[in-house]
């Protein structure tokens, strides 16, 4: 990390951090080829094979069946492939929701070096490569076990969430007739019968 980040983490002014560096009081700190002061990340407490497992389903009714099964499959794969599981998180929430409490907490922890998910959409419906980029910037990795296609029902639930979210922004908190009509079309199966899909 840069010296400015070190100062922020330790709650001191940059000048005080620079003085510590000058006096040799920051172990391992050095100047790179362009003169930037680099401080080793003292909070890195994990090994390369320390893994975090993340499992997610959209529907609360699947909390007791599909969610534990998914979590166990990922844990079993991680163990069989030589990873040491230090975190295992299971959560109910939409794949388009960027305020998932458990995932946010997991991403902030510095106890793992590899994040393992069953499929990309278990982590996020959109922007997976952004996740990968930011995690790799922390010298960590994401492993996706199964690159298979999306579950149709789960995908529809997430799309319904998007429609209601955008509708709320455009028309207020009430559900607009347009949004309800779009959801009706989405949740109608091939035989013209509506699936029971909640927003």
TrEMBL record:
Stored Gene3D superfamilies: 1.10.287.2170, Resolvase, N-terminal catalytic domain
Pfam family, one: Resolvase
Coiled coil (UniProt feature): none
Residue stretches making up the Resolvase/invertase-type recombinase catalytic domain: 51-181
InterPro entries, per the entry: Recombinase/Transposase-rel, Resolv_N, Resolvase-like_N_sf, Transpos_IS607
Domain of life: Bacteria
PANTHER family, A to Z: PTHR36172, RESOLVASE-RELATED
Protein name from the UniProt record: IS607 family transposase
Source organism (scientific name): Bifidobacterium amazonense
